[in-house]
Structure formats: structure tokens, C-alpha cells
Inverse folding.
């Protein structure tokens, strides 16, 4: 079986831009519209990734998951009604809201879905910042006071990441992406976000965006103080029950297959060029689903890739 690729779904966002056009030479749907997110692999009820090449062209990710699960994805996924990951590229030209995702133990009580994710910095303007965790000394009461005063930005810890850095964002971690960053995001299949502060700005419709202060306060881990960017553990950038992400440096001619031959993986091309067995080439920003028992990819040049798997 050959590699499977999907047509991206582009999401208009007040904080987005046009970098996906510049960096990855993508064709964006509407001229002049700010696109903040490209959903590369999505099995959400209203946002379905559609195969864009080969014999399965036109098939949705959910159809593959329902009808060819064992054949394409492998064994051990019987308990997942949908494809368990959501893979995105984010283009932040302005700051995102300061937000939090609900931990599993309270997500359903709040009417949402748990969401743990990781970020890999694909591009960063000098001085671009991430906002992650709380500043030292900030208590829950201090934070609630900052919400009242509209000064939450003064309570949140900031980091200046470089291209190639990564960070794990467990549910419960307060976070925001600053202006000037392009990020590969690998996350649980969830679309629940609670915004606690939106920089006192207006939405695209000229109205302040909704905040979810009460839910946010219940979700925030107030012991998460001044975290830094992650240090890789060998090739491993992030690992948790939901996903495992390795960064691999491939020299020209190297063959790349699934680490577990009986299960699929997702390949993100960070740099260089890969060739698939169907004769296609894949470049920076491309996302590939490597089916179980798939034929290997070949590095056509020195390349860096992310390989995402789901732990057994």
C-alpha cells in the first residue's frame, strides 16, 4: 500500500495570515483572507479530511477509519470511534487568546473533550513568544484578580522559542501562541478550548470574542509555573498515552518505514524531500499517512521529519 495524503482544510482566524502560501507554496482558498490553521488530518463531524490522490481519492478519513481500520491503521484501535489525532499547521500573525484545554477527569462534566497537544516550531520571527504556564508567585486568587482587571498577560509566563524547538502542552496547561510563529500541532482529536483572556481585542465581526472564565479556572493547573521548551530525549520530542513524536534526521537515500510494522504512522516533512513508492515527492510542510505494512519512503535529499505514532 502507498502513502495516503489529504486535502488540507483552511480555517479563517482573526489572528491568522498568509504564511502558508509563502513558506510552503500552498494555494490558499481566498485572496487576502487571514488563515490561521490548516487542518491536515481531521476526523471531526463537520471537518473531514478527504484523500487527494490515488485509488482512495475522494474518501474521507472517517470512511477509512470505519471501513479499513485494521488494513490501513492496524490493530488495537477498537475503542476509538474516530481517528484519534488531529494534525494541524498554525500560522499566528497576531497573538492567540490565552486559553486552556480540559483535563480528562472534568472534560465531560464541562461538556467538552479532553485535549493534550504538542507544538513543533516550523518558523519563528525574531523575538516571537509563546505564553505557557504561570509566572512564579502567581496564586489562583492573583490570577482571578488579573482577569477582573484585564491584565492576565501580566500573570502568564513567556518563552522565546527558536525554529526546531518543541513543547508538550498537557491538558490543564495555560497557553497562547504569540505573533510571528508557524507551528506543527499534533493533538488529541478534540476541538474544546476555553479562552480566559483575548488581549482586550475584537473578533473578525467587530465584537469581543466569547470568554470561558469559569470553565478555564476549573481546568488550569496552577502548579504549572514557568516551564521551558522541551529537551529532546534522543529522537523523542514528546510521548504520552495519546501520541509519541520522534524527530528523525535522514541522510539522502535513507528508507523510512513504520517503527511498528503492524501500525500506521504520520510523517511531517520539516525539511528536505521524501519520495513515496507511487513516484510522488513530498516537501516541507507535507503530512503523510504511512499505512500499516506500507512501502517505505525514501529521502531524496538530507531531510528532517517528525514521525508520529500512537503508543500501544
Amino acid at each position: 500500500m502507498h502513502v495516503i495524503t489529504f486535502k488540507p482544510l483552511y480555517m479563517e482566524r482573526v489572528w491568522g495570515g498568509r504564511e502558508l502560501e509563502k513558506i510552503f507554496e500552498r494555494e490558499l482558498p481566498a485572496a487576502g483572507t487571514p488563515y490561521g490553521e490548516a487542518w491536515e488530518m481531521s476526523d471531526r463531524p463537520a471537518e473531514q479530511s478527504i484523500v487527494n490522490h490515488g485509488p482512495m481519492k475522494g474518501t474521507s478519513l472517517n470512511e477509512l477509519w470505519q471501513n479499513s481500520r485494521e488494513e490501513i491503521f492496524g490493530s488495537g484501535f477498537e475503542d476509538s470511534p474516530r481517528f484519534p489525532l488531529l494534525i494541524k499547521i498554525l500560522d499566528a500573525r497576531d497573538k492567540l487568546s490565552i486559553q486552556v484545554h480540559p483535563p480528562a477527569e472534568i472534560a465531560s462534566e464541562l461538556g467538552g473533550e479532553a485535549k493534550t497537544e504538542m507544538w513543533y516550531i516550523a518558523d519563528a520571527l525574531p523575538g516571537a513568544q509563546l505564553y505557557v504556564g504561570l509566572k512564579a508567585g502567581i496564586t489562583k486568587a492573583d490570577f482571578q484578580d488579573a482577569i477582573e482587571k484585564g491584565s492576565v498577560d501580566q500573570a502568564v509566563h513567556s518563552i522565546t522559542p527558536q525554529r526546531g524547538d518543541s513543547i508538550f502542552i498537557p491538558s490543564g496547561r495555560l497557553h497562547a501562541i504569540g505573533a510571528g510563529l508557524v507551528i506543527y500541532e499534533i493533538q488529541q482529536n478534540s476541538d474544546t478550548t476555553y479562552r480566559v483572556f483575548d488581549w482586550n481585542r475584537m473578533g473578525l465581526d467587530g465584537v469581543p470574542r466569547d470568554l470561558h472564565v469559569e470553565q478555564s479556572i476549573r481546568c488550569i493547573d496552577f502548579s504549572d509555573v514557568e516551564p521551558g521548551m522541551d529537551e529532546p530525549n534522543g529522537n523523542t520530542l514528546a510521548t504520552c498515552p495519546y501520541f509519541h513524536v520522534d524527530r528523525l534526521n535522514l541522510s539522502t537515500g535513507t528508507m523510512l518505514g513504520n517503527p511498528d510494522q503492524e501500525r500506521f504512522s504520520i510523517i511531517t516533512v520539516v525539511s528536505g524531500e521524501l519520495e513515496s513508492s507511487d513516484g510522488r515527492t513530498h516537501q516541507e510542510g507535507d503530512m503523510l499517512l504511512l499505512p500499516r505494512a506500507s512501502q517505505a519512503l525514501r529521502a531524496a535529499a538530507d531531510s528532517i521529519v517528525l514521525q508520529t505514532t500512537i503508543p500501544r
Remarks:
- The first strand starts at residue 6 and ends at 7.
- The mean pLDDT is 96.
- The longest helix spans residues 140-149.
- The helical segments are 19-24, 61-67, 69-73, 104-107, 140-149, 213-219.
